[in-house]
Write a structure and sequence with these properties.
The complex is a heterodimer.
Chain A lengths: L19 E5 L7 H5 L21 E7 L4 E6 L2 E6 L1 H17 L1
Chain B lengths: L17 E8 L6 E12 L15 E7 L8 E11 L22 E10 L5 E9 L13 H7 L2 E2 L5 E8 L6 H4 L29 E10 L19 E15 L6 E12 L4 H5 L5 H6 L9 H5 L2 H9 L5 H5 L5 H9 L21 E4 L31 H12 L48
Antiparallel strand pairs in B: 1-2, 2-9, 3-4, 3-10, 4-5, 5-6, 7-8, 8-9, 10-11, 10-12
Classes of the chains: A alpha+beta, B alpha+beta.
Chain lengths: 101, 453
């Protein structure tokens, strides 16, 4: 992985069994994470994503790629939901990581 | 070991590894209960330069059930924070540590205690409480007793707390017992015999980290009731300790990311349960489960592996045990539900029918004037398995129980083998390992005088 995404994008090694994760710092997140998390929350329109920092780290885990089940962890909370578009973007990033690896 | 390194996964995470849990009516303050939750197994006193400490990234809990459902009614949460005064030195201390505020003490730790009630309401009951340093030696910690005493804090509601290093109080012949179940005093009778010998205390020169609380009984019962009648179910509390880590941990070498809810990685109620009763493949899973779900492990209590091994390892010594094929209802009662009324005159420590590994204490049983290390087996109702005191010989008690000595409590037709009442690990710990006042475990050994423990 390129250094720019060191704190901001972690691709799981178990891609074949639907494992991928992303970590985002609330401060100055670079390109990878906004793209990956564009589907989270769905509050903002797709062409104007809400990238307001939370001031804390956000970790996303693709629990089941086949169903698009994603968990998002922030602070001591975890929310699990289905988001096929987000899952697809995570998989896209994960495939890119394995190709670049 | 009681619960030291008892499961493959947690053995690699000592900071979160609960080693012993004690709960007893305080002998010098009999209107209070003392609870000690120990972590970090097998601390050698000379553990520098990065000495043992609690984990800032671990959530430690002491959990109380006071209504018989085996679930949390009162939870005390402990979170630690490490402070470094001078990041340019590698030293833990740059001179003698004469007080908890010493400028020479470079790496300190404080903690916060939060009490959570049965409805989930959280209240911080102690903040920025100071841990003592570890005991290093005469140059660094010349008056360790004063440092340790200064780290005993009194909170509102008459609660006393301490968190820091103490001397290991649990005693066990670790070297022999895991050498195919050898008990040195009886090893002449072992399948692979050698001459009988006295037991060897493997933990006598080690330290541990203790979270200690002394709490008025009326703060532990439902509704502030004062326990006076041993046969009143409200007199009994169930206790366990647990450690938790964040669900997500992403490593960067430093400045790691941790996020998500806390996940339980270690728990402990009764000594030796996960150690001896739970099969290896399920030990870490057991650590991650909450006690009220312990009925899933019932088979390991009903037919413990050790009960089958004893007649094999000691041929001809346990014929009655070997022939006993019924479920071990005695162990299920002692370890999973508590002993109901009507079995031992004037005593019970039942918490109802929910099977759960809880250390159960009948608070209406007063402290014994002459404690017997064999607890209830020795006729002393104030000892294990009615709670657990620091000097209770839980290894011998549980070996005797597994060997069949407690079966007649529930099955009068069974006659225990003579050996069941005689087997022992053959240890009597030195009195210097303990003290008469809170937190009852002795001062930790220092590294200078105990360099090779």
């Amino acid at each position: 992985m390129a250094e720019l995404s060191r704190r901001r994008f972690i691709a799981g090694t178990a891609i074949g069994v639907a494992g991928a994760a992303a970590a985002a710092s609330g401060l100055g997140a670079a390109a990878a994470v906004p793209q990956l998390l564009a589907g989270v929350g769905r509050a903002a329109p797709a062409d104007a994503p809400d990238l307001t920092p939370l001031g804390t780290d956000v970790v996303a885990h693709l629990r089941d790629a086949s169903t698009g089940e994603v968990s998002v962890m922030v602070g001591d909370r975890e929310i699990v939901y289905q988001d096929a578009q987000l899952a697809s973007r995570l998989l896209q990033g994960a495939r890119r990581a394995t190709q670049e690896g | 070991m009681s619960s030291h390194r008892e499961a493959p996964g947690i053995s690699k995470d000592p900071v979160a590894d609960s080693t012993d849990l004690y709960a007893f009516v305080s002998p010098d303050h009999p209107d209070t209960v003392t609870i000690l939750a120990n972590y970090i197994p097998l601390e050698g006193p000379a553990g520098g330069p990065n000495f043992y400490e609690f984990g800032d990234d671990v959530l430690y809990e002491i959990v109380i059930d006071n209504d018989g459902d085996a679930d949390a009614d009162i939870t005390y949460q402990f979170r630690f924070k490490t402070h470094v005064k001078d990041s340019t030195t590698f030293l833990y201390n740059t001179g003698p540590i004469g007080s908890l505020g010493s400028a020479s003490w470079n790496r300190t730790q404080t903690y916060t205690i939060t009490r959570i009630d049965e409805w989930g309401h959280a209240k911080v009951i102690g903040a920025d409480l100071t841990c003592p340093p570890v005991n290093i030696g005469p140059r660094s910690t010349p008056d360790y007793g004063a440092l340790a005493q200064a780290a005993v804090h009194t909170l509102g509601g008459g609660i006393k707390v301490f968190a820091g290093q103490r001397r290991e109080g649990f005693f066990v012949d670790l070297g022999s017992i895991f050498d195919l179940g050898d008990l040195r005093p009886f090893q002449n009778l072992h399948l692979i015999p050698t001459a009988a010998a006295p037991g060897v205390d493997a933990t006598k020169d080690l330290n541990v980290h203790t979270i200690a609380m002394q709490i008025p009984m009326t703060s532990l019962t439902k509704g502030g009731w004062k326990p006076t009648d041993p046969l009143d179910p409200r007199s009994v509390i169930g206790v366990y300790t647990s450690a938790h880590r964040r669900k997500a941990h992403i490593r960067f070498g430093s400045d790691d990311v941790e996020s998500g809810p806390f996940v339980q990685v270690s728990r402990l109620g009764n000594p030796l349960v996960n150690e001896v009763l739970i099969p290896m493949a399920r030990k870490d899973y057991w650590n991650g489960e909450r006690p009220h779900k312990d009925s899933q492990f019932l088979a390991s209590y009903a037919h413990p592996e050790l009960a089958g091994l004893l007649p094999v390892l000691y041929p001809g010594v346990f014929p009655n045990l070997a022939a006993y094929t019924k479920d071990r209802v005695d162990l299920e009662a002692i370890l999973l539900t508590g002993i109901p009324a009507g079995i031992i005159p004037g005593f019970q420590n039942s918490t109802g029918s929910t099977a759960a590994d809880l250390l159960r204490l009948n608070m209406a049983i007063p402290p014994s004037g002459s404690p017997n290390a064999l607890g209830i087996l020795g006729g002393d109702l104030a000892g294990f398995p009615n709670g657990r005191r620091v000097k209770d010989d839980v290894v011998t008690i549980e070996i005797r129980a597994v060997a069949g000595l407690t079966i007649p409590l529930v099955d009068p037709s069974f006659t225990p083998d003579g050996a069941a009442g005689l087997v022992t690990q053959g240890l009597t710990p030195a009195a210097s390992r303990y003290q008469a006042t809170f937190p009852y475990l002795g001062l930790p050994l220092d590294g200078f005088h105990n360099p090779s423990s």
